[in-house]
Automatic annotation (TrEMBL):
It comes from Kineobactrum salinum. Residues 130-421 form the NADH:quinone oxidoreductase/Mrp antiporter transmembrane domain. Keywords: Cell membrane, Membrane, Transmembrane, Transmembrane helix. Belongs to the CPA3 antiporters (TC 2.A.63) subunit D family. It is a multi-pass membrane protein. It comes from the Bacteria. The keyword Membrane applies. This is Monovalent cation/H+ antiporter subunit D family protein. The chain crosses the membrane at residues 79-101, 113-130, 136-153, 165-187, 207-225, 245-268, 280-298, 305-324, 336-356, 377-401, 413-437, 449-472. It is found in: Cell membrane; Membrane. GO terms for cellular component: plasma membrane.
Length: 489
């Protein structure tokens, strides 16, 4: 049996990696080797815990208690285990991709890029391991600060302005809404520890419950529930590996993970959704899904379209959580993983297209499948997963969410999922069609081939995983099933 004293290794490894990257910055090959070796070591450490957590182990370690009743503590449970596995594994793939992308595009400040990336992964591990709201908030803020230099990487005035929007929205919402919600919870409950079944029952009632829920949901801006979503399109000025970090590896996943964890462990799903004042969240999630999908439909820039697609897909997790049925709760957790594989594949493809041809607009992609067949094959798989077509990961998560909606007789959720699936098809399938079957647009250079090997390798791995997950997902279903066995059928 593993000791809880090994939990800090998940934080220390990427921190040590950041130090090693800084020390080897003058030697690019060595620097990137340090980054890759650190990512592999972290993934091995994280996955070594999976069997024990799947068997019911719940390791916990208190590191300090700076304030009475507010310990700085780490623990591992099924939801955190899944998030840590996704972030650590995809760090390996993203590092391989970054090596090809950053070198091919001759990006400046590459050492800073790899350092900040490692720090962001350390923060993501802290969020996955957070034992209470106090610990979660500290790592949530560290994640925001460590990713700001990545978003502002290019350094030109337009990029810096967009990065300030990113930083302003995420810091503003967390300090003005998330922090007061944590303090309020501590005052009424005497603790902020994540506890299965929640800690709010009997301590708050009426409209105050809906208000506290709103402070949490909109205070966690990384979940991008409208109207707290502007930071996500603004962040698309970042290099593609950063976009992949934001959308698939750490940032947005940290947002929906945090909201889901708060609903399950702070409010308790049974208690929260017996309260009429909490009903608004289902409508907010449904509105975000439909509205963001409609906005995505009218985008002409590939990365901006993918950004609005992400906003919609994130709220699938929120909607699934509030349905309050076992199948939907499992679907919420599975969608975090399914979206990670599919969306990172799409951003990898967008970066491959930019690296090989410097194309960024959708109209420029006509006929590109003939010049970049591997890239567009990966893009097609990612797009089908976002729509929810078998045999892709997205079908699995949508199946569970929709089954839970029918189980709960939630017609709003059923309509939202069906309508958004149609909208997803409307903005993804034309891209796939024109890329494979249309002639190139007049005046568009097609004298190029595929992106470098490192980019292709990373992209094809994530595309393959998007399909593999369709067939081999039982370990994750069993793990997350531990969260919902107490829910009413």
């Amino acid at each position: 049996m593993m000791s809880a004293t090994t939990l800090p290794l998940m934080l220390l490894l990427p921190l040590l990696g950041a130090i090693g990257i800084a020390a080897t910055g003058r030697w690019p090959n060595l620097r990137e080797t340090v980054s890759l070796v650190t990512a592999v070591a972290l993934a091995i450490t994280v996955f070594s815990w999976f069997p024990e957590v799947a068997d019911g182990a719940r390791p916990r370690l208190v590191l300090a208690e700076p304030l009475p009743g507010l310990p700085f503590a780490l623990s591992l449970e099924p939801l955190g285990m899944m998030f840590a596995c996704i972030a650590s594994f995809l760090w390996i793939i993203n590092t391989i991709y970054s090596i090809g992308y950053m070198r091919s595009n001759r990006e400046k400040h590459q050492t800073r890029f790899y350092i900040c990336f490692a720090l962001a992964i350390a923060a993501a591990m802290g969020i996955a391991l957070a034992d209470n709201l106090f610990t979660l908030f500290l790592f949530y803020e560290i994640l925001t600060l460590s990713t700001y230099p990545l978003v502002a990487h290019k350094g030109d005035p337009a990029t810096v302005r967009s990065a300030r929007v990113y930083l302003g929205v995420l810091l503003g919402t967390s300090i003005a809404l998330f922090l007061p919600a944590i303090i309020w919870t501590y005052v009424i409950a005497g603790t902020t520890r994540f506890t299965l079944g929640g800690i709010i029952d009997g301590k708050l009632e009426g409209a105050a419950i809906g208000l506290l829920l709103g402070l949490f949901v909109f205070g966690i801006g990384k979940a991008a529930v409208m109207p707290v979503h502007r930071w996500l399109p603004a962040a698309m000025v970042a290099p593609t590996p950063v976009s992949a970090l934001l959308h698939a590896v750490a940032v947005v996943k940290a947002g929906v993970f945090s909201v889901t964890k708060i609903i399950i462990y702070i409010f308790g799903v049974d208690f929260l959704f017996s309260q009429p004042s909490a009903d608004w969240l289902q409508f907010a999630a449904a509105f975000t899904i439909i509205a963001a999908s409609v906005v995505a439909l009218y985008q002409t820039n590939l990365k901006r379209m993918l950004a609005y697609s992400t906003i919609a897909q994130l709220s699938y997790v929120i909607l699934a959580t509030v349905i309050l049925k076992p199948l939907a709760e499992i679907g919420a957790a599975v969608h975090i993983a399914a979206h990670a594989f599919g969306k990172i594949t799409l951003f990898f493809a967008a970066g491959a297209i930019y690296t090989a041809s410097h194309k960024t607009e959708l109209w420029q992609l006509a006929g590109i499948g003939r010049r970049m067949p591997w890239t567009m094959a990966a893009f097609t798989i990612g797009a089908l997963s976002m729509i929810g077509v078998p045999p892709t990961a997205g079908f699995v998560s949508k199946w569970f969410i929709l089954a839970g909606a029918f189980q709960a007789e939630s017609y709003l959720a059923i309509f939202t999922i069906i309508a958004s699936t149609a909208l997803n098809a409307m903005y993804f399938l034309p891209i796939v069609y024109f890329a494979w079957l249309s002639p190139p647009a007049t005046g568009v250079d097609m004298e190029h081939g595929e992106a470098p090997a490192a980019i292709l390798l990373a992209m094809l791995v994530t595309a393959t995983l998007t399909i593999v997950f369709f067939f081999f997902n039982q370990p994750l279903l069993d793990l997350e099933g531990q969260l919902v066995r107490s829910l009413p059928l």
